[in-house]
C-alpha cells in the first residue's frame, strides 16, 4: 500500500514521514554513473562515497525502502551537503538533487535529532529574526554596538564564550564587522530621466546583504538607474526564505514567499531584481514551494517568472558599457546559486569584460563551492574552513587584485579567508565594480 503525499508517494515502510518526503520517482533516477563525484566539494575533500551525491542518494533510497532509519547513520552525511547543486549540473539523469536534499532537511527537522540549544537557535533565527526585517535590523544594530564599543574584545579576553555551545562560539567568530550603513526596504526609488526610461523594476532587499553590504544595494540601484531602469524597493517585502528552505524550515519560508508575492505583485513593474544569487534561486523556486497552496500557487509561478538576477537582467536589457577606466586585474568566483541553479555564468563576465582597463583572469575551480552555503559555516565549520582555504589559495594563484562575486555568502567567506592570510586581494561584487566604472565617467 502507498500513502499519497503532496509531492509523490511514500511507501508504508518508508522511513520518510512528512508529506514533502523525497519523491520516489526522483530517488530512482540515479544510474550510478559517478559523473557527479568530481563536481562535489565534499567528495573532493574526503574522497568518500558517503560524502558524495551518489552516496547520499543511496542513503535516501535506503531510508525510503525502510532499510535505514533517519539517525546517526545518515544525518551527518546529509548535513555535510552544502546544497550547492554542482551535482545537478553534472548529472546526465537529471536527478533533482537540490529539491531532494531540501525534503531531507525537513525530515531531519521533523525527527528532531538536533540538540536542544540548536533547535532553540533555529527557532529564534528562522522563525523570528528572518521573519521580521525590523527586528533583524535591531538585532544587527546591537551586534554593531557590541563590536564597536570594545565589548567584543573584553568578552573574548575573559573567555566567557567558552560557556556557550560550540556553534554559537563559531557564530560569534564568524560574524563580520558590521561597518557600513544598513540598507532598508523603505519604498525608496531611483528614477532615470524620462527620455532614458526603459523599464520599471522592484528590488529585493533580502536579509543579510542589506546589513553586511548596504553600499552594494545602493550601487545596484545606481547601476539600474544608469541603464534607464526605474527602481522601487517596496517596504512590505520579506526575506526570500532561502536560508529557511535550506534548513528544512519550509513553513516559515512559505510565509515569507507569500509576503513577497503580495508585496511585489501589487506593483506595476516589469521584473523583480535580486542582487544576491541565493535569493534569485529561491524566488525562481517559489512555484515549487507554494505548489500545494491553492491561493498562491499561480501567483508564485507568476512572481518566479518575473524574477531576474541583476547580472542577467542588465545583459537582457542591453546594458550601457561603462566609459570609466578601472586599471585592475580581477578574477571571478561563480556563486553556486548563480552558476549551478540559475545557469548564470556568462553575464557577470560580460559585465566585467565591458569595463575599460579591467583585465579578467579565470579562477581555477571557479564553480567549486567556497564553503559558505547559507549557515553552513556554522553547522559544518571544519569542511567550510577547508573549502574556504582551497578557494582563497586558488584566488591568490591568479595574482588578481580583486575577486568578484554575486552572492553575499561568497563575499563574506572569501573576505574571511583572505583576511586570515593577510592577503591584500579585495573581495567585491561585480555590481560594485560596474558602479565604480560608471562613477568614473567624465
Ligand atoms: S549539493 Fe553540492 S555538496 Fe551536496 S552532494 Fe551535490 S555537489 Fe555535493
Ligand atoms: S551523476 Fe546523477 S545519475 Fe550519475 S551517479 Fe551522480 S546522481 Fe547518479
Task: Kindly list the characteristics that best describe this protein.
single chain, 442 residues, alpha/beta, Fumarate Reductase Iron-sulfur Protein, Chain B, domain 2, Glutathione S-transferase Yfyf (Class Pi), Chain A, domain 2, 4 domains, five-stranded mixed sheet, 24 helices, 11 strands, globular, binds iron/sulfur cluster
Please outline what is shown here.
The protein has 442 residues and is an alpha/beta fold. 50% of the residues lie in helices and 10% in strands. The model is unreliable at 1-10 (pLDDT under 50).
CATH topology of the largest domain: Glutathione S-transferase Yfyf (Class Pi), Chain A, domain 2
Helix content estimate: 40-55%
Instruction: Outline the low-pLDDT stretches.
Output: 1-10
Main beta-sheet strand count, sense and barrel state: 5 strands, mixed
Shape: globular
Mean pLDDT: 89
Rounded radius of gyration (Å): 22 Å
Sheet with most strands: strand arrangement: 3-5-4-6-7
Can you describe this structure?
With 442 residues, the chain is of the alpha/beta class. The chain folds into four domains: 2-111, Fumarate Reductase Iron-sulfur Protein, Chain B, domain 2 (Orthogonal Bundle); 116-174, no CATH class; 188-316, Glutathione S-transferase Yfyf (Class Pi), Chain A, domain 2 (Up-down Bundle), CATH 1.20.1050; 321-439, Rossmann fold (3-Layer(aba) Sandwich). The protein is 50% helix and 10% strand. The chain contains 24 helices and eleven strands. Strand 1 (2-4) and strand 2 (9-11) form a beta hairpin. Mean pLDDT is 89; it is low at 1-10. One iron/sulfur cluster (SF4) binds at residues 39-42, 53, 56, 81-87, 97.
Amino acid at each position: 500500500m502507498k500513502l499519497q503525499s503532496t509531492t509523490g508517494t511514500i511507501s508504508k515502510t518508508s522511513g520518510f514521514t512528512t508529506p514533502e518526503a523525497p519523491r520516489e520517482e526522483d530517488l530512482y533516477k540515479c544510474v550510478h554513473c559517478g559523473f557527479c563525484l568530481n563536481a562535489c566539494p565534499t567528495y573532493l575533500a574526503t574522497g568518500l562515497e558517503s560524502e558524495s551525491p551518489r552516496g547520499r542518494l543511496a542513503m535516501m533510497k535506503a531510508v525510503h525502502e525502510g532499510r535505514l532509519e533517519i539517525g546517526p547513520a545518515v544525518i551527518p552525511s546529509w548535513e555535510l551537503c552544502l546544497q550547492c547543486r554542482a551535482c545537478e549540473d553534472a548529472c546526465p539523469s537529471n536527478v533533482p538533487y537540490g529539491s531532494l536534499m531540501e525534503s531531507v532537511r525537513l525530515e531531519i527537522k521533523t525527527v528532531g535529532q538536533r540538540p536542544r540549544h540548536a533547535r532553540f537557535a533555529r527557532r529564534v533565527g528562522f522563525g523570528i529574526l528572518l521573519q521580521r526585517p525590523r527586528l533583524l535590523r535591531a538585532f544587527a544594530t546591537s551586534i554593531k554596538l557590541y563590536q564597536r564599543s570594545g565589548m567584543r574584545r573584553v568578552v573574548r579576553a575573559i573567555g566567557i564564550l567558552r560557556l556557550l555551545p560550540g556553534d554559537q562560539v563559531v557564530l560569534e567568530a564568524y560574524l563580520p564587522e558590521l561597518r557600513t550603513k544598513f540598507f532598508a526596504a523603505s519604498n525608496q526609488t531611483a528614477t532615470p530621466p524620462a527620455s532614458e526610461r526603459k523599464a520599471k523594476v522592484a528590488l529585493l532587499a533580502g536579509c543579510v546583504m542589506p546589513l553586511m553590504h548596504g553600499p552594494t544595494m545602493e550601487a545596484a540601484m545606481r547601476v539600474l538607474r544608469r541603464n534607464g531602469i526605474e527602481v522601487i524597493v517596496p517596504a512590505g517585502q520579506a526575506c526570500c526564505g532561502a536560508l529557511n528552505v535550506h534548513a528544512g524550515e519550509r513553513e516559515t519560508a512559505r510565509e515569507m514567499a507569500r509576503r513577497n508575492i503580495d508585496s511585489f505583485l501589487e506593483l506595476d513593474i516589469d521584473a523583480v531584481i535580486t542582487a544576491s544569487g541565493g535569493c534569485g534561486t529561491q524566488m525562481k523556486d517559489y512555484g515549487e514551494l507554494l505548489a500545494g497552496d491553492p491561493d498562491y500557487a499561480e501567483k508564485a509561478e507568476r512572481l518566479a517568472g518575473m524574477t531576474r538576477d541583476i547580472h542577467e537582467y542588465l545583459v537582457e536589457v542591453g546594458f550601457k558599457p561603462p566609459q570609466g577606466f578601472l586599471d585592475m586585474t580581477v578574477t571571478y568566483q561563480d556563486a553556486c546559486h548563480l552558476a549551478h541553479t540559475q545557469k548564470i555564468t556568462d553575464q557577470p563576465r560580460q559585465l566585467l569584460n565591458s569595463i575599460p582597463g579591467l583585465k579578467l583572469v579565470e579562477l581555477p575551480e571557479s564553480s567549486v563551492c567556497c564553503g559558505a552555503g547559507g549557515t553552513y559555516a556554522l553547522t559544518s565549520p571544519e569542511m567550510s574552513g577547508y573549502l574556504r582555504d582551497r578557494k582563497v589559495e586558488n584566488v591568490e594563484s591568479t595574482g588578481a587584485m580583486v575577486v568578484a562575486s554575486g552572492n553575499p555568502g561568497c563575499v563574506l567567506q572569501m573576505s574571511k579567508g583572505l583576511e586570515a592570510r593577510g592577503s591584500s586581494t579585495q573581495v567585491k561584487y561585480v555590481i560594485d565594480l560596474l558602479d565604480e566604472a560608471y562613477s568614473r565617467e567624465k
